[in-house]
């Protein structure tokens, strides 16, 4: 860090399993990816190529190389996994990941309905090829999953081999663990945390108020995802109490986690 | 496209008259324009230099050259046309277009009142110098145009020589064919489409929900405009069903247009 | 300017004391800062490194050099000043400014409570080291300061040595002189202006409607701050009447200030 300031909370150092910032790249050019990494490299842990954007983005291979040069794992958005699956092209999906040297894979069912045992089967299979993140929560705002069910699903997916379970929010942050307004379903989040270890959950939190909620609840080393490229530095600043919203959180032993 | 996926709807290939993506550049630097084109070149059809931004943007000529190198036509936002017109500098406008080698021109009356016959006269005159796009709809939220009038205006402007009529939305997407909230005036849109061929209309649709509405209504090859540079890839992904919102739209013969 | 257009209001030329555009950089990379300056250099007057972002941004010194090469003064966001202060590291703050060759400094109390005489003391001290901007208004939405108090605070701070007083809005534009919705507290603004010269106030106005309000109230040479990098050119265009919102403002002697 650039200056000497006391009472800055300890961020776990990279490579880390907790305190993760996952960025959503929804079509950056090569120079834009390089620009992001040139300031973001100490703070970014994983990059997701959002939904199916990797299908239509030129220079995909070169961009993945940029991230690899910073030791940043990259994965395809869950919507792409689902697009292969619904077309009966699951094996093609594995081939594409190999072809692009992608070792992180998301298993999700945000847009399709599959029996949960089958979903866990995909997690098991892909866990043999690399690191699996699996997502819980529908992209359909009308499809409400009760808290006990979130817990059941997350437990089963971790058992099946997921390294993290992702709490769905969509790019906009208005479904899954959030209401249509973007407000956190606090009761849901807190009930999940009674059963699932916080460090195994990656909370999609594209909106600032959402990031703030989780930092206040779980501390500076909470796992946050779907962060926009321009918000990497502001988020890191908020994590350590140097943004107005969290200014007092870590002072004098406040909010230690 | 990067992978092999079945059931992807057919996008018309560039150069195309339908299925157009028009981007609004509101002051990009040369490298930013190059970055956008390096990933956007297969998907972008036209670039608009938004409202009067071209007046205050340094290196304008060089930026137009960047777009030309990708065979992308560029035009000045309608507000600039109106700014010349209200100052009795219509001939200067033609000179400026020639000076910058601009052959697409927008004729609009979003901020000024001119008799419609006079507006059509400008369309006729400019159509001798290049391709004309003319815009219908006021930027003044309080000025409501009834549907039959939209149809009359659009018909007359196409007859006068417009290659496309643009349905006004402003950069924010909150006037014209939208309510102040950004919601589509669906009745208006559907009534317009009973009389004006969809492929002659360029719908300004800066918001994602607006883009989604038109893709659902008119298919993947609808003409959409006022797209932000960072939304080119996400929009293309949504057009072909690889974003959650349109995931099911093109599967099993759904939504074929 | 690129074309010849009559009836364009006179913007004061740089370097200027009035008509200032202050940009908030919240973590740009070196190439992004260069891109912004390559189009923004005729329009940008001051760059603020927002809140504590400078603490976690790599290549900070090189970025400050980029701005210096365009003769643009840079300062650290007030939250960083407050972070040093609450840790009893005020002298370290002065050292850091010297170390980075920063001669503009913000004194604020948006996140901490300090007696106003003490705040004015800091202004006096820092004014010996460079140019001071001091900010009035809390970042706490629940903490309402009545208009007469805004005037008292601003007067005292200007007397203590501030070159400008900044009217707080936060990055989002939803506190201080704005309601939670972003709407301007018009009565407050107008009462402030009965006592404090407009040219000594830098209005934080990140939202377009806020920028419009101040341009309509105070003319094209109003001081505006917390402008996003991508909004520099659109703001300049709005200032001179080449955006729909201000199209008629400067025509035929309208709105001369």
Automatic annotation (TrEMBL), chains A, B, C:
InterPro entries: Aldolase_TIM, ComA_synth, ComA_synth_sf
Top-level division of the source organism's lineage: Bacteria
UniProt similarity note: Belongs to the phosphosulfolactate synthase family.
Protein name: Phosphosulfolactate synthase
């Amino acid at each position: 860090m650039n200056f000497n300031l006391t009472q800055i909370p300890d961020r776990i150092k990279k490579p880390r399993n907790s305190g993760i910032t996952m960025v959503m790249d929804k079509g950056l050019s090569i120079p834009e990816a390089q620009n992001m990494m040139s300031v973001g490299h100490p703070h970014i842990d994983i990059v997701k190529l959002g939904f199916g954007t990797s299908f239509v983005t030129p220079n995909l291979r070169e961009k993945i190389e940029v991230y690899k040069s910073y030791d940043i794992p990259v994965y395809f958005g869950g919507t792409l996994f689902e697009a292969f699956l619904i077309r009966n092209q699951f094996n093609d999906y594995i081939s594409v990941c190999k072809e692009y040297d992608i070792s992180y894979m998301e298993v999700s069912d945000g847009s399709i309905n599959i029996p949960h045992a089958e979903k866990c089967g995909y997690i098991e299979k892909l866990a043999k090829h690399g690191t699996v993140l699996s997502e819980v929560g529908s992209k359909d705002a009308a499809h409400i999953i009760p808290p006990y069910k979130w817990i059941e699903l997350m437990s089963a997916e971790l058992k099946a081999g997921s390294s993290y379970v992702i709490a769905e929010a969509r790019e906009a942050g208005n479904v899954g663990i959030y209401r249509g307004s973007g407000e956190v379903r606090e009761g849901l989040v807190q009930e999940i945390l009674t059963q699932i270890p916080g460090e195994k959950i990656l909370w999609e939190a594209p909106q600032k108020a959402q990031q703030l909620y989780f930092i206040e609840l779980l501390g500076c080393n909470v796992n946050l995802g779907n962060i926009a490229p321009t918000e990497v530095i502001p988020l890191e600043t908020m994590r350590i109490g140097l943004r107005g919203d969290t200014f007092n959180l870590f002072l004098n032993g406040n909010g230690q986690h």
